[in-house]
Specification:
The complex is a heterodimer.
Chain A: E1 17-19, E2 33-35, E3 55-61, H1 70-76, H2 83-92, E4 97-101, H3 114-127, E5 132-135, H4 140-153, E6 160-164, H5 170-179, E7 182-186, H6 191-203, E8 211-214, H7 224-240, E9 250-251, H8 253-257, H9 261-264, H10 276-293, E10 298-301, H11 304-318
Parallel strand pairs in A: 3-4, 3-10, 4-5, 5-6, 6-7, 7-8, 9-10
Antiparallel strand pairs in A: 1-2
Helix pairs in contact in A: 2-3, 3-4, 4-5, 10-11
Chain B: E1 2-9, H1 13-20, H2 24-36, E2 41-45, H3 53-65, E3 72-75, H4 79-88, E4 95-99, H5 103-115, E5 119-123, H6 134-151, E6 159-162, H7 174-185, E7 194-198, H8 211-224, E8 229-232, H9 237-248, H10 254-267, H11 282-294
Parallel strand pairs in B: 1-2, 1-8, 2-3, 3-4, 4-5, 5-6, 6-7, 7-8
Helix pairs in contact in B: 3-4, 6-7, 8-9, 8-10, 8-11
Chain lengths: ~325, ~300
């Protein structure tokens, strides 16, 4: 007896967004990358093909961070001492794309200067030909100053600049428009606010195919279910045809996971929690896998082993099931 | 439409200040203004007033009853304060707003309402909060609220069920369910229980300039399923015009005809269709877009009216 599998047909689709410019496109990247284009919910290959697989980004810093888990610093070793060597190591570790997260202060405790931010960005662009995203330290005024300098110095590279939030998006969007870059729009785990920020950014005139949205997530055990529901709802709205929710989604499970006690702390925790390194990596991997299943197009990770495991998960999820 | 005026509410800075200085003139003006604008009762929300409830509720009753004759609705969780106020009532039958289905409230509040022959607003909210689905909200009314009234021999004509309006900005999935709750509640008991809602809640946390349109559009949809009483702003002239259009079936304007269509669609268990709307008229398009967010078909955003319509 044959069973007919019901298929959903959606009115809308996720917008395709391409970033990273090759030499022929006015940049220096080895290739550009595209995400989005889905016409159905994640990995339902029987309903529609998934045009582009989710991408794994690795977060690197402009100098060795002093607040990262020792597990991460051990994994990256000497490479984490400067952004160029870190970028190379991240490429070897399997990054599809690099995220350079600028620090608030330099190694002497002085505020990061625009010149230093540009130097770090250019060192990364020189060391690795992967497409690049550059995130500010997360303070409105500092972000504006650093990202404008970076955007101008890298005109034409089609970088992704982050992070635009409702109180701080105008300057970053303006410099992205002027210099041919993209942006990521972050909202605090709320479908209404995510959509509103997209509308505001569109109203400034940035083409919709240059916007990624970051609905914010929490790590496993720390609110991931809220993040998951918000992403699911945004994706359903996108498929139903709401143009202001059709941007591909980027989330930062690495950042979220390595804040948690389970990933961060190796001592004075119950023995039942198991071996520390394995626990941290599993936490990051499981958080990220859940997020790509809720529709994330790009996940930003920190540990190289998590990256390897996530690639494996994505390969499995992208594989077409063999017909019985 | 029976409107319970909502404007004496502690959320207003002016009310807060007037309360601190016991400015009786302020409250009397606000009471008279609302009644002149058509309010048939006045809701008084002064917050819990844990410290001075026993003094302030009676003071407010005397202040307001000195200038108007309409029922006073005590909107508070402070039962002792409400009781002090009830003792002072000299004019119309008062209202207690409210009890919920939480065991402790449902135990005590209806007894006080019965003792003072007050009408009682009962919320479809249990110990675990406000359910999303219409069925669950109706169940709270039928399985908890009404049985408790029967148990204490509370006159059913004094019961007002409030199935709870929540904001489209943040609780969007509740908005369409409330419509169906009101529709069903009228068949939940014989005779049909009186139903009232706090209309303006639907636009809480919405930018001020967008609130009236959301309020009156939702009002039409709720009237379509039978709503006859609400706590609302009687000074909102556009809202009252809209109610008048529905009640007198005034089809002299295009927008009026659209509101009547919206009302008729809901009365017939249907929904507004694109062909009902003249999409070249910006005012009608705004109403269409508002219906879509209230039905949770399009995700609400503060700039929802500016969003172009897509397939």
């Amino acid at each position: 007896m044959t069973v007919e599998i019901p298929k959903e047909t959606w009115a809308g689709s996720v917008r395709t967004v391409t970033f990273g410019a090759t030499a022929s496109e006015g940049g220096t990247r080895a290739r550009s990358l595209t995400v989005g284009g889905q016409k159905t919910l994640p990995f339902l290959h029987f309903e529609h093909e998934t045009p582009y697989p989710p991408l794994v980004a690795i977060e690197i810093k402009d100098h060795r961070p002093d607040d990262w888990s020792p597990l991460l610093l051990d994994a990256w070793g000497e490479a984490a001492n400067d952004p160029a060597s870190w970028a190379k190591a991240a490429e070897v570790a399997g990054a599809d794309v690099l995220v350079l997260a600028l620090s608030l202060n330099d190694t002497n405790g002085q505020p990061t200067t625009p010149e230093a931010a540009v130097a770090a960005t250019q060192a990364v662009l020189k060391a690795s030909a992967l497409p690049l995203m550059v995130f500010g330290p997360g303070q409105a005024e500092v972000d504006n100053v650093l990202l404008v300098a970076v955007a101008e110095a890298t005109k034409g590279e089609r970088l992704v600049l982050g992070i635009c939030e409702d109180k701080n998006y105008r300057t970053i969007v303006a410099t992205a428009m002027a210099n041919g870059h993209l942006i990521t729009a972050r909202s605090p785990m709320d479908v209404n606010l995510a959509k509103q920020l997209n509308i505001l950014i569109k109203d400034m005139g940035l083409p919709l195919d240059r916007i990624l949205m970051d609905p914010t997530t929490g790590a496993l055990g720390y609110g991931i279910e809220y993040g998951y529901s918000v992403m699911e709802r945004l994706r359903l709205a996108a498929l139903q045809g709401d143009a202001m929710t059709q941007m591909p989604m980027i989330v930062t499970p690495g950042f979220e996971t390595w804040k948690t006690k389970e990933a961060k702390v190796g001592q004075d925790v119950p023995a039942a929690w198991g071996e520390w390194r394995e626990r941290g990596i599993a936490w990051e991997t499981l958080t990220a896998v859940a997020l790509i299943e809720s529709g994330a197009d790009i996940v930003v990770l920190r540990h190289p082993e998590s990256v390897a495991r996530l690639h494996q998960a994505i390969r499995s999820l992208m594989a077409l099931p063999e017909l019985a | 439409m029976y409107i319970i005026g909502e404007n004496i509410h502690i959320i207003s800075q002016k009310v807060k200040e007037a309360l601190e200085t016991r400015d009786s003139k302020f409250f009397q003006n606000l009471a008279v203004k609302q009644v002149e604008a058509g309010a048939q009762a006045l809701d008084i929300n002064l917050g819990p007033r844990k410290k001075d409830g026993a003094e302030i509720f009676p003071w407010m009753v005397e202040t307001i009853e000195a200038v108007v004759d309409v029922p006073i609705s005590f909107d508070s969780t402070n039962l002792a304060g409400i009781e002090a106020g009830l003792k002072k009532i000299r004019k119309a039958q008062p209202i207690i707003n409210s009890t919920s289905a939480e065991p402790e409230r449902l135990e005590k509040v209806p007894l006080v309402a019965k003792q003072y022959n007050a009408r009682l607003v009962a919320l479809t909210m249990g110990a675990s909060g406000i359910p999303v689905s219409a069925d669950e909200r109706v169940n709270i009314a039928v399985e908890k609220l009404i049985p408790r009234m029967i148990e204490i021999d509370f006159p059913m004509q004094n019961l007002i069920i409030d199935p709870l309006v929540l904001t489209v900005s943040g609780c969007q999935e509740y908005c369409p369910q409330l419509i169906e709750t009101i529709r069903t509640l009228q068949y939940a008991w014989d005779p049909a229980p009186m139903i009232s809602v706090g209309l303006s809640n639907v636009s809480n946390a919405v930018p001020r300039q967008n609130r009236p349109l959301i309020n009156r559009t939702y009002c039409v949809m709720l009237m379509g399923v039978g709503l006859q009483t609400m706590i609302a702003d009687p000074l909102d002239q556009a809202l009252k015009d809209t109610i008048r259009i529905i009640e007198t079936r005034d089809d002299s304007t295009a927008v009026g005809r659209l509101y009547l269509k919206l009302f008729d669609r809901y009365a017939a268990m249907e929904t507004l269709m694109p062909e009902d709307v003249d999409m070249t008229d910006p005012e009608q398009v705004a109403i269409w877009k508002t219906v879509q967010i209230l039905l949770n078909k399009v995700i609400y955003a503060d700039s929802y009216l500016e969003q172009e319509m897509t397939a």
